[in-house]
Queue: 4 jobs
Job 1
Amino acid sequence: MDQSVDILDLISSLLDAGDYKAALSVPNDEKYLSSFKDNCWDLMSMVIGKVEDNTMIIKPSLQGACEEFLLTIVQKAVPEEALLEFIEQIEIAKNDAQFSIVLTAVQELLKKLTIKRGRSLEWCLNSISTYIEGIPVPEYKLQGKERLLMENDAQFRRIIRVYSLLPTFYAPFVKELSVEDANVRTKQIISAFLVSLLGKPIIFLDLDPELNSKSEARQCISTMILDLCTLVRNIMKFLPYVHICHKEDTSSIRKKTSSDADDELLPYEHKEKINMTTLSGLFYATHSGHFEVPESAVPCVYSPEYTVNTILLCAVHLLGFTEYGPLHKGIILCKAIFVYIPDNCPAAQLSSIHYDLSKALINIAIFSHYEYIRKYAVNLIKSHIHKFEHKGRCILIKYIINVANHSGMIGYVISLYKENINEVFKQNIEMPSCYMGTELIDMIKKICHLPHGAESDLVELADHIITTLNFLRYLLLRDTKNVTGIRDCIDMLEADYLSKLRVALNMSKAHYEVKLKDIEESRTIPEAGVEISVNVGGNYLDKIPTDKKKEIIHSALNAFHLIEGLLACLSESLRIGRRFVKPLPLVPISNAQRTLRFYCQRVNENIRNTEAPMQVVATEHEEHQYEENVKSRILTKALEFVTKHGWSVDSLSQGAEAAGYPGISHGLFPNGGGDLVHYFNVRCNEQLVEQMKAWPKQDLKESKIPAQQIEDAIMTRLQMIGPYKSTWPKAMAIQTLPNNVPNCLATLLSLVDDICYHTGDRSVDFNWYIRRVGLAGIYKASELFYLTDNTQDNSATRSFVKSRIRDAELIQTALNMNPVSVAPQTLTAAFVTAKNMLGVNTLK
């Protein structure tokens, strides 16, 4: 051998020159054999260092030569010594291309180590796990379909690329272990590794099939799950480990072990691999329904209650993250596990995990950055509560009221409590004890609570107060026989809640009106004297900019006015409940009260001494008119959201917020979307009348029908549906619901009566009925045709209307020939037709 030749420099120069064949021949040349063995590990590092992330694209032959060179080292080196060196190279790999070529070499080494493979495989898998955990995971706070953009992110692509290398690496060993007499410990080593891969970082990626069912990440995880099922056969054996890991995570004292003791641990006892995060990822994969799992791998060996409670521990753990990936997996897992909870589950099965789940969902619904996640959490709260019998529901609702430091969330669960009572009334069953007597009184004390009495911040508590007043008024009106005992609580409500609320309401209104006047008149007040803050779940946001203060004050005053209207309605219901009238008291601001703190603001001493004029309590008629005005403003704004949310409570809620009222104000509309459709119909009818008043008048004589004017009126009215054409079929369906039929029939009859009157019909005989019922039939038929008309300027609909009017003229002529004899049959047919076109022909 030529001692002057440095084998490292030789092979490096050959690779740099692109002479890959010569470089690969050096280890087989006898004159370099001794030098090759002496410098084997240095050669390994040098060759691996030649590979960069873009080598496969720019110089694919170079990467192939380096990979082949490493395999040559595997063949010529002592396997035990080579393995340690390759494991070190895995941990220090500078890029994924280096990781890839080392992984191929390690696989070949492990195939050679047939006797001591178990421990060697464990070392290799530990190094692979260390490398994967070092990959950073970015969080962009994207939502909905925007999440698809994440697949183009470099770091997310890197995670998927690395994960895609792993099934090929461990596949030969899984195949060997699929036989009955395979080494149990080796099985557990690979199984623990596969479970660890379901934790970080893959848990942060989107694996929802609805978003992208054929993504690389999903395909890779699907393969790993099937391989894990092949090795373990019973995934449910990991359930006890969930309890062990949960106990260790919540325990303040954790057992510390030395590295020597770690070596003696069983594969499933290594916390780096089997922990709450990895187990949560495992049970998300097997129970969410997002992946296909063999039924034999999830046998029903444990009781349903134990299985549910255990997997809910995983769900709660996922809900403890702030990132979208774990949160989404957590709520999906919750939804899937709720299926295993039987309906009307006994309250006795309310274990601690159900309270932890409620608390986790509350925090997400209030604080999560993601709107979709927040809404999903709110729905899960309702689904979770409704899984239990009424006693269990009340227990959970009381718990949420106690722990949720958020007015909107408390208001939401109060509405759920109201729905539960209403459900009992509708089913006409015996009232459960949890809604009666002392239980009801205890609940009322919880919800009718002002934390600081008359000094409470009504802006912060607005949603809570509005829902409470709605609930109390509902129960007083609904429970006419006092089954629940609500009427026995009237004196308590008046003394402990309503009187303090009136004081707080008057003080808050006066205060905010003064602040609004200060801003509008631009008084010479230091800026700090008009500061406003916003409270969310007990946390105060940063200072509000000056240009937003006026908007916030208006919103607060709107909330106060709404509370005032509801308070007046409730007071009237209380009077009826007591069977005597008690006037609403006027509450002036005394000198003592003037010293009370002002809410949501830090004010100067000169403001604190300002005299605040009080408003006189409105009359009952004025209160009713005010409530109607509030409803009108909310409904008008709600129409702007119909194209997005349809004729639904969501549109009402969005409309309330757009009008400056709390979203929970949709409770003013008991028929939900039905009230919104009715308002739209009434408004369109009024607009049509205003237009028809400007049309030329003509008298309807004998059998003459003003066909053109009727045609124009129907087309004008139909075109008002235009902006909501895509959602109108749903509106028509809503109108057929029993509680909406009276309003629907009234607006239809009002429409046809207005059309007949303003087109010249002044008849007072039998024709009055025939024309209106006939016109109603024409309008409803034209309405259905209009929804399918895609012609320009709706010309097809106009032709359809003209044809129906021409048919009506022929019918009118026939009736005029013998009106008396055909009157009974005509009226019967007319009313049957009216019922059919409204979709109520089956209603009793």
Job 2
Amino acid sequence: MEYTVRIEPDASADGIYIQLKNGEELSGEVRVTGQMTVVLSDFDKKPQEIIIQRKTSFCKRTFTTFYCKYIEVQSLESVFYFPVFKNISTTKETIAEGSGKLPWEDDEEKRREGLEEKKKLQELVGWTAPDGAGYKLQSGSAAHNSSSKNILSLLSLAKDDSTAIKETSGKLKTSLDVSHMSMAKTENQEELLLIGSPVSEQQSPVSRCSAKNEGLMSSEDARMAEGAGVKGPTIAHQYTPKEKVWNWISGAIHYRVLSGHNISKDIDKIYISGLPSFEKHGDFLKLQKDLWFGPHKLLVIIKNGIVVAIQTWLRKHNKFGRRWKKIDDIKSVFLFPSKKAKDISENWKDDAFFGSQFLNGCNPGMIQMCTEIPEKIPGISDVCPDISELIQKEKIYMVDYELLDNIKDDIIHGHRQYLAAPIVLLQETAQGLMPIAIQLKQKPGEENPIFTPKDAEAWLLAKIWVRNSDFYIHELVSHLLKTHLLAEIIIFSIFTSLHDHHPIRRIFAVTGRYTIPINIAARNTLTNKTGFFKEYTGFGVDAQCKVLDRAVKQLTYKSLCLPDNLKSRGVQKLDNYHYRDDGMQIWDAISEFLQKVVDTYYNDDSDIKKDEELQNFFRCIYHYGFEGQTDFPETVETKAEAVEYLSMVMFTCSAQHAAVNHGQYDTYAWMPNGPTTMRQPPPRNADEVDEDYIMNTLPDMETTLQGMSVARFLSQATEDFVALGTYADDVSNDPHLRDVIKNFQEKLHDIGEKIKERSKSQKFSYEYLYPSNIENSIAI
């Protein structure tokens, strides 16, 4: 029988000699070279033990474990796994397969110490259980009535400066240098960014991996421990942080910023009446080296920013003046477009293309089936006589921007800007999803007409108003709230509730990579009082807060679970809805993957209930993330419920973010397709609208350039991109997870091939959910 022997990936040892052993029978001795993979073909028994020796002098070979953490022996049918311990006696000759804990499995005491460290950071943001609750967060309404100030609820994150990120004493010079929330372990195992929840009295799933003799292992674990598991595929090199290459840069930045006191480690919080409170002079994060962006990531962001700045300068100097005279004038600054942006600039006036953006644009979650004549548009029957019949045939769909109703507009460069809250009706036809009526305000009336395709220039302007409103809801709600801010709450809870070596924590470590520092940077540059939204959109800070407040109150748990979301909107049968089709394939792949992970570590539903670390994760989101004002589950009772919840988390932080993020530059590079503000109020009748009226309504050149620049910057993938399904080597080579991860990757690859094949026949291809383009986390 032939065996392939692999030493720990990326090991650099040489001169290691290996023999396999079964009882008294030994294989031939083989030397493992620097390639770390050898083949043994003279042993026809199942290996029960392995003998390792290393040549330490010319004539003497002694046993050592210095160069590796584990050894994997693989045959055609089975994989055998031999953990290697640093404290093993040098006089010991063999290691038994499945003889003890894996290298990453801490004992109970280490886990307790780790959770103590995590708890300290949790206390900084007010996530503190009531007195007497100990480490365990008690369920019930009392849990969120702590006297500590909660500065990390979803509402608080949505409130500009009350996001707990504020420039203090003139010390905060730059937002991009502020922080790094690295989810990778440091070499000394000190991950101070995470804080705690109690150590469970019940044995955790981590302990279960090494508890065969106590009857706590799953059937899969038992088979693996006995060397009779299913065939394990060889896992290629996955993801390893490249920070060591940049250590000298990291050290220089760390010295300059922290030792030089250019950035304050104490970040102010403020209080807004009626919203979750914030301590005025407390700490949000004590920023230190291991909490920042990695220096590689930081340099890539800076490089991308420079490229965007140069492009903006070139656009600006290609068009002097601040006013457009006709729509074609905008082409003078339409430089460096993506292929899709160019396609949009050529087709944006077309009704079918306008309708398609609700399905496959960068805000594809708004459209819903219309099941009755909307009360807000009582005159629709006058302009569409067959509307009732079309509704009965399930051919009418609606997009309603009611979140923008009665929102106060803002002032840009001394000029008032204007907002609308439109309602759009669309009909599914053989030509596609066609808009048939647009009402630009929520309350019907004589000065709020219903525009139709018969209204020529007024119809075009009405569609532009819809695109402007869609920009606001897309960026503030679909993108910022439902991915970035929600992920921040969830990731913070995962990393402060679960011990570092908890299996769920290990799977989701890469899911939280860079999310928190990205959000901090965004709140210092985009949504603050001097940020992009304030300076170049019709939304002031108060307007942002009000819209986000409304959206948080409407947010439901099931709306974040894609199958339930699609069903509630009635869009299961809508043709050419590629976001739905691709999203469901990815959702199913994620769900299947996590089902196998949960099955590996939890025997039955009772194990889920007993895992207090996992339950504290759910409780923290409920009590602190949403302050108890949500339909999110406070606890999870079954394996099926846990899989759904975790699927929602992974999908939100990867695929959903890709769907609403990657198409920003495609969509907004051509300004009329998504203006960031409007300089005249919505028209009161169709007759007053001509091209001059439209040009006086669209934003000026400076605002246009800023909008293009922001969209370009936010759409760029960085060089340290880590794709969905890619995990650190110690995770992807874990014998409990190796097959599961490999199958997940194969599913994602198959989905990608289907999307690639479909794109060949599409005029406007939809590839935002192409799996290899989906990052594992919200990292931009």
Job 3
Amino acid sequence: MHVSHFRTGSMLQFCALALWENFLSEEISIGCKRRAEPRARGRGLLPWKQRGGAVNNFPATRSGRAEGEGEMGPKKKKSAGGKKKLSKAEKMRLLREEEERRLLEEEQARVRAELEEAARLEKERIEREKTERLEAKDQERRGIELSEIHVLEENFLTAAQWKSKYRALAQWNHYTGCDGSPDPTIPQDINTFMSLWKEDPNNDIQLVIAKGNQVLELIEKLEFFIMDTPFHELSAKHVAQYTETIQQLQSLLHDKYNAATEQMLREASSYAESESGNMEVVIKEKNVTLCIWANLKKVPKFRSQIFYDDQREPWNGFELPKALAICDVAVRILHTHYDHLSPFRTFPSEPPKLEMPPIKTVKSVSSAVKKGKKGRKLVGEVSQESKTEHLKSALHNSSILEAKSTSEEEGSADKVFDKSSSILKSVSRVHISSLRIIGTSESEPLEEHVVDLNQFMPVGGVYHFDALKLPPQAKLVKGWTMVEVLDTGLEIYPYEATCDENEDPSSVTVGLTVRLLDSVIYFEEPLIARWDAKAKYWRTDDIGDVVYNMQEKEIAFKMNGFFTVTLMQDAHLNMPYQSWELRPNGTDEAFLTILTTFAEVQIQIKLNQCMLAGITTMEDTTLLSDLRGVWMSPLALTIALKRAGMNIFPAEYSPKYVSINKKTLLAEITSYQQMALIASSFAFSWSKWNLLSGEENVVFRICEHLTKEPVWDKEWALLMFNGQRAQRLQLTEDSDNFSKNIAEDTEFHSTLYHLIKDFGSEEAMERIRQAHHLFIDVVYQLLLSTKLLTYS
């Protein structure tokens, strides 16, 4: 009788299968023994006696014979090998016995495998039926749950309206303030400002630096305005106009620094240093560091120069080739702590089309009466008094929707998608643009030695290293100071390193030593690149003999000419993340902690602002002290951290350089939205199972957290969400294998909010309902900008 003939249905049948396995094993064993007995008798042996051994149940005597064997004849001599040689018949018998044992083991293994398969199928059937029941139950109350979550999601639209009014109010306050500074978004104001400064003949270096700080503020305002404003509030035409204004301001600022440098060089003799007799000037300000040296004495031995600041700290330096040591040449190292050479980030002319899969619905199997009961039960759990009437109307509408056909349910699902999309479109231009994924085929190939600015980012500003023609100096003639004024402006001294075959290259190359800023982080030795003014990109050729001294924050290198250089760092050094945690810290407060390969970053959130609370590496815990404790908007913090070299904000091209945990936009974006809605009461954390859950699902840990204490490991629960259905998983973070099985005594829900209601306290739910819309919006912006679920 074959095991597979049994039908797998109940536990009674399962027990019968197990008994049948034991019975079958015994029968096979007895049959094998019976078949062996006739063969033994045919060879003239008793059935219980084995050839060359002792009789069964009679132990061998010390003489080597069994009892009763003494009369069988004289004792045989042992063979030389110590063992008796087996006959052909004995060998055949042993082979047959071995074959029978093998067949028996195979039969037992087959029966065991069939029983295990039957048990597995039974378990899957039970789990499948359980899932179907829970899915049907979830579908019954889906309309009500979506109506409830829509009430909470109004916080996003309220925050978007507040930010729009805030931008308009800021423009009005600037207009009525009459502080003399132009509004960079008004073309008449900014054009007038640029024209007046361009025509101003006063190019004193201190005045230029002061005015330059104002220009930098105007540029930052325009850049922030472009990136922060949603697509529907700022047209592509205005973006192009503001981008052109930014470029004009940058060009004007650099021209003014050139004019101030020219004025200082005309008075070079007044800045002469007593020891060398040459001009030496060091000016350190907030946004620039200016070092100028003029070769007034033309002494060949003075080929190198190290500049010192007011505290006699070494700063930048250079080394001239021999040919320039006796020329009328000046050297300028203008270190701008900003980068106005790299192209400004471009945005699409319209919102990118985010391909989200359609929301699937599960056909309900329960009656409408049961639906009504469920609906009445959930109505009593709705929260804020200020939204009671709104919610009642929504619930009334949802009960109507539930009574309609399956096609109408799909239409309701489409409305859910539209709701999520409308929330997404209300966020900033930079956030929604970064959700696109630009493939390798869309990026143009680069020439050799050209730096890919999608992969690398300038850190620490730009070093303008120039050889300049020394203008005519003032002369004292009969009590009069006379100076020849040339209308050529600041002139570049042309130089290109060339050497003969036998000439030492070090005598013709130009050396540059740069000091690294304390306000930036270099996680590894940076890449040095020079600016190609004609092609408008950064290159790495014509630079060599690099000497890094990262402890002293100093880098020295040689070049084949005077170039504008910058220090590049891999933009994705800190991606993907090792882990992350979002933890509430009181009413409308939270901490976001991200652990990367090189550092741990902690961001504190409070209402509508956030700040860098700390950044720690293995070597240093005091990094970026200038940024710590400064409250700002999420976008401003993003810009500041990237400028400082701490990039934890992926862009649309980042998947080309980082191995990501790809998820569907529906699962990822909806998760961020609903995580932000409940972040005032629940903590979230990274889970290793998110890597194995597939593209359509995200997995993370969650626990209720109403205090300011750390979260203990035993308090976490695992949740899985695909944008349409949330469930608590049966497995834990320490489980051996991933499983999508739902946890015991839990149910499916359409949203994270309703899932946590099953195990959350009333205090936690009340805090969620009372959370401020600006706090929710800030958490949402940070989750969108860091993309924790796909970059960890």
Job 4
Amino acid sequence: MLKCRTVWKKLAPLARASSTVCRQNVRRTGLTSSRIPACVPVAHMSTGPAGGGRENQLYILLVGAACVGGAIYTYRTVKGDSQRYQDRIEEISSRSYKRATAEPATPIQSEPSAVDATETEVILEPEPEAAPSLEPEAAPSLEPEAAPSLESEAAPSPEEPSPPAPDAEVAVPETTELPPADEPVVEASPEESAEPAAVPVVEEEPSPPSEPSPVELTELPPAPVVESEPAAAESPAAEPTEPQPEVVAQSGGPAPDSLKVPSHTPYLLIGGGTASFAAARSIRARDPGAKVLIVTDESDPPYMRPPLSKELWFSDDPSVTETLRFKQWNGKERSIYFQPPSFYINAEELNGAENGGVAVLTGKKVVHMDVRGNKIKLDDDTEISYDKCLIATGGVPRNLQVIERAGEEVMKKTTLFRKIEDFKSLDKVSRNVKSITIIGGGFLGSELACALGRRSTEYDLEVVQMFPEKGNMGKVLPEYLSNWTTEKVKSEGVKVISEALVKSVVCKDDKLEIKLKDGRLVKTDHIVAAVGLEPNVDLAKSAGLEVDSDFGGFRVNAELQARSNIWVAGDAACFYDIRLGRRRVEHHDHAVVSGRLAGENMTGANKPYWHQSMFWSDLGPDVGYEAIGIVDSSLPTVGVFAKATAKDTPKAATEKSGTGIRSESETEDTATSPVASLTLAPTVEQHQDEYGKGVIFYLRDKVVVGIILWNVFNRMPIARKIIKDGEEHADLNEVAKLFNIHDD
């Protein structure tokens, strides 16, 4: 560039002089010729033998030479930059390879954390005999998983002070180029090594995390696709994890400190609940090679929440808080976790996994979301970019304002029931105190009241339940059925206080005094607040996502889409129901169905949410109900009841279906029974004092919009079809016959 500038300074005066001569010739010719002065200069400048023609040609030659010189300079500059870029990539690649091969012991020591102790012993024994052959083989096999991820983050910083954006771009080809370079070494090693027994152990170590265990969610369709991946040789590794689920809870704590967070993931799932797990399984079903990262602020992998307030409390195992295994009503035992640890792969191995997989990053909270940049920020300032994202943050238990204002002493003696830690804490409290008061008469409050009531005799525990309604589940059940349910709860050993509005809570003499607005005073040792759930929409502000003002939660369309590459599922989704309008549902079955649908849509399905999710509640093993649609006690209801038999209980229903999570056995079924539509107004059924089993219809504009099956099980497809049809019925007694409630 400096040479061109110097040449131009020398030639510029000559160019200006020739230009001046040309202008003078034009004026001189125009003055001497009186015929066509405008045309003469053109002919004179282009063809005239004298009068400055040589200077014009020189001017044109100089301009052309300058253009050619600039083009040559540009070409050489671009070519040189490209060559330096390639040299830079080769230098970084060779440096990471040399560093990994120079220290083969480091990756081998970090690997046994994901392998059993018996396997590490097998690896260490042959070292004295075949140390020269084992070390060069082990290092290349582990390098594509550990070394590239560490090097891509650490290498750019100590080098030349280039912008961070080019460094990030260099890291991408680095991780993609290294694995192919190492594959020939691994394939050739069994032929050269003297002891092939140690080599397969090292080669097969990355496979157990990606191997899925037998599917426990029978509701989800992806099971056949995922189960086709594992090899037969991995069956011994999966066996020790099943009888020891307590290891999962213990290993969930220290895992986040040792994990290296991947900088990018194709599928990012925020939240570690049921919706995220269902979405991950659905994504893997449609895209078997997908790489899915679940980020959760809990210390446990995805698990089921319903047993926390149901079956776990009825377990005879004194160590149930450690094992988290329970017996279903049908007597079969299962773990609260959806899958054992072997189903997941380590987060640092996700990018290098050849067949993809599902990784769970526990103990990490997403505090900021950049929608335009397609990235999130964790609470430790780590950033992760994504291609597609699912928000399944669930909800946060509500608390009473009078309790929040009461002070720290009252809060220490109050439990907001939601997670595994809450179950463990309340279980310990129930064994050491004399009285517990449950505030709330909904699903959770009534289930916990019945569960703790069973312990009242064994532990000399007083259980009190108070709520502002007239009876248990007064916002859902009709008044007559709510009153009957209240008597049922009382028979479980619970003292029920209805129409109770809490005015204040104070702590005196290590006791909590709850003062009601009508003057009543209740003294207790501990409080359980079960007053509802608040959807977790903390990311709405940073992400710029819309929050529904009526129902709460992220506002999404019928495809559960909030943005072009962002979906929301579970409790936090306020979706559009094509049959019942905009809704937000807080139940297990909805989390399963919405998570599965969001996963399908993230892989290009574009399906609307048409499935009517159900929910269920059990007041012990003898009384339970299933519901679907809009069940609100403020709506007109018609109930049809019949005498119950021994098989009309939750226990008998699970014995027949073979599963304790009843939604898993019915969501794939479809109803084929025809429902006749009539036009007359529904009649009111006369109720008796005993409600063994029956069907309750909720009406809006003479159309059934909600159904409760009281001690009637495995009939939900029929109820779903009635709501889907959206027709009026003259005699709901005839419609109730479709549920076979009169059969013995």
